[in-house]
Hints:
Blueprint: H1 6-9, H2 12-18, H3 21-26, E1 29-34, E2 37-43, H4 57-73, E3 77-88, E4 97-107, E5 111-120, E6 123-138
Antiparallel strand pairs: 1-2, 2-4, 3-6, 4-5, 5-6
Amino acid sequence: MKNLSEADKLKIPYKMLSEDAFSQWLGIEIVKVKLGYCQVKLKVRKEMLNSMQKSHGGITYALADTAFGFAANTHGNYAVSIETSINHIEAVNEGDELTAESSVSIDKNKLGFHVVEIKRNTELVALFKGVVYKASKKWEVE
């Protein structure tokens, strides 16, 4: 299998999103992609609220996890999460637009360590950390 060009690697998150019904249901949009980096966004809707009328923590987690997965896969190999954690810092409300910005902090041969900042405008509302395992299988993009 041929090695992907940098331009092809940057197409991977778009391919992933096109095949990800859950992220599409959430309304996640890709804002920016670079090697080892991805920024995504969503707007919090009524059906995403918990019993306290705040965004369910799973929404923030899912947004961060999507950014993390997209960024990790820009290296061209399938990358799957093996450990994640999130710290919820501020409550999130209906109508808030959130962005999640994932960047690789440490990139090893088989492992990648990422930090994702989830923000409402410039305010940090959650911090996510994740580790991926990079498989030998390579992405194919058109």
